[in-house]
Design goal:
With about 400 residues, the chain is α/β, with parallel strands linked by helices. About 35% of the residues lie in helices and about 30% in strands. It is built from 14 helices and 18 strands. The chain has helices at about 10-20, 35-45, 65-75, 90-100, 120, 125-130, 145-155, 185-190, 230-240, 255-265, 285-290, 330-335, 340-360, 375-385, and strands at about 1-5, 25-35, 55-60, 80, 100-105, 135, 160-170, 195-200, 200-205, 210-215, 220-225, 245-250, 275, 280, 305-315, 320-330, 365-370, 390. Strands 7, 8, 9, 10, 11, 12, 15, 16 and 18 form a nine-stranded mixed β-sheet that branches. A seven-stranded parallel β-sheet has the order 3-2-1-4-5-6-17, with helices on both faces. A two-stranded antiparallel sheet has the order 13-14. Helix 1 links the parallel strand 1 (about 1-5) and strand 2. Helix 1 crosses helix 13, helix 3 (about 65-75) crosses helix 4 and helix 13 (about 340-360) packs across helix 14 (about 375-385). Bound molecules: NADPH dihydro-nicotinamide-adenine-dinucleotide phosphate. The site of NADPH dihydro-nicotinamide-adenine-dinucleotide phosphate (NDP) has 32 residues, from helix 1. It comes from Pectinatus brassicae. Pfam families: Sacchrp_dh_C (PF16653), Sacchrp_dh_NADP (PF03435). Keywords: Oxidoreductase. InterPro entries: NAD(P)-bd_dom_sf, Sacchrp_dh-like_C, Sacchrp_dh_NADP-bd.
């Protein structure tokens, strides 16, 4: 049916690329383009023999010019951005210049401050509309599936949704005292920032990890979870009818938190450049270089993830609760695509989002968050492509 250009070749991209190759009827051709071409070539080699035709290229996605040249040469139907959030705008600029659809999994981040907000990408709405191309923002799990779950809940179970709690539980154990499950720089920026939630039309800010709850997760068990700011709170607060409050919780083990506190206390998580032996370095980027590569956690991670949303709202005038979630097994993911479940739960929705944009199901000119599209084809695709969802109409609520 078409060809996709995939930018980035890290943990998430590797899963998305495996999934594109499983879905070769849609992804007849893909190009993997990243900063380090040898990684793209190694993945191509691993996937050789399949029906999807794979090519590779080197690209610096900070350079709009290089991206434009590459897109003009390859002529993809869609660009799937699985590099880092710093590259979102250069890639969107290149898509605009070449009139090519765009899909990503994370909001643009300015390198010098941790923001996790959409304003820079939303500013492209009119330009994308005028160019007649679609930008689908946040097609991972969270953001991503959490937005699709919200649209699904509103479409099929509620007249209005008043409260959403997004619960992201990783019950996996990789055996290291400290490692992050996806890009360490982005992960640590996210968890060391102040927390916040959306209530009655405004943000309520908390200190990092200030709000803690315990929750018993299906197929995982009892875990401590902490309230974090997360980018989808911003778009869901605007796009889901009737919202009064929306919160995001993520589980962390004690060892992770103790290490993180220590690294923070000694200044290793800072994104302020410092002078080191005559060079400017960013402590967090140095820390990333000494931590295990998330892609290497696959073989050693055991256990499951459980990510989902608990909704409270009204149906036919009555209060109603609804919990929809996915459980994913780290070792099953590893056996299937050679990655742990955190990369898997992001890479599968990235492939699905690219598929729906490419095949026209989700095309509308402009810049949209995922919950602005009809959730039904995405919900069906989740069941088909490895992330089946489960429902609970009488969930334990978070106080
Ligand atoms: P990785 O660090 O594993 O991979 C990033 C890839 O991008 C690497 O291949 C890297 O190249 C490449 N890259 C970085 N900078 C450039 C550049 N300037 N030009 C070209 N390529 C570049 O990250 P992950 O796979 O863990 O994460 C990918 C994205 O997914 C991130 O944006 C992350 O925030 C997002 N994410 C979203 C989630 C969700 O649920 N929505 C959950 C988890 C992640 P090199 O190999 O040379 O370093």
């Amino acid at each position: 049916m078409g060809r996709a250009l995939i930018i980035g070749c890290g943990g998430v991209a590797s899963v998305a690329i495996h999934k594109c190759c499983q879905n070769s009827e849609v992804f007849e051709e893909i190009m993997i383009a990243s900063r380090t071409k040898s990684k793209c070539d190694a993945l191509k080699e691993k996937l050789a023999g399949g029906r999807t035709k794979i090519t590779t290229a080197q690209v610096d996605a900070d350079s709009t010019e290089q991206l434009i040249n590459l897109i003009n040469e390859y002529k993809p139907d869609v660009v799937l951005n699985l590099a880092l959030p710093y590259q979102d705008l250069t890639i969107m600029d290149a898509c605009l210049a070449t009139k090519t659809h765009y899909v990503d999994t994370a909001n643009y981040e300015p390198p010098e401050t941790a923001k996790f907000e959409y304003k820079w990408q939303w500013a492209y709405r009119e330009k994308f509309k005028a160019a007649g191309i679609t930008a689908l923002l946040g097609s991972g799990f969270d953001p991503g599936v959490t937005g699709v779950f919200s649209a699904h809940a509103l479409k099929h179970h509620f007249d209005e949704i008043n409260y959403i709690d997004i619960l992201d539980c990783n019950g996996g154990d990789h055996g290291y005292p400290f490692a992050t499950n996806f890009n360490p720089e982005i992960n640590i920026r996210e968890v060391t920032a102040n927390g916040s939630y959306w209530e009655n039309g405004q943000w309520v800010e908390t200190k990092p990890m200030e709000i803690k709850r315990e929750y018993s997760f299906a197929e995982v068990g009892q875990k401590d979870m902490y309230l974090l700011h997360h980018e989808e709170l911003e778009s869901l607060g605007l796009n889901i009818k009737g919202i009064k409050r929306i919160r995001f919780f993520m589980t962390f083990g004690q060892s992770y938190l103790t290490h993180l506190k220590c690294l923070e206390n000694v200044g290793m998580t800072s994104i302020e450049p410092i002078d080191f032996e005559g060079k400017k370095i960013i402590p967090l980027q140095f820390l990333k270089a000494v931590l295990p590569d998330p892609a290497s956690l696959g073989p050693r991670t055991v256990g499951k993830t459980n990510i989902g949303c608990i909704f409270t709202g009204k149906k036919d005038g009555k209060e109603k609760h609804y919990y929809v979630y996915n459980v994913c097994d780290h070792q099953e993911c590893y056996r299937e695509v050679g990655s742990q479940a955190v990369s898997y739960t992001t890479g599968v929705p990235a492939m699905i989002g690219a598929m729906l944009v490419m095949n026209g199901t989700w095309q509308k000119p402009g810049v949209y968050n995922i919950e602005e599209f009809d959730p039904d084809p995405f919900m069906d695709a989740l069941n088909k492509w490895g992330l089946p969802w489960q429902e609970d109409f009488n969930p334990t609520m978070v106080d």
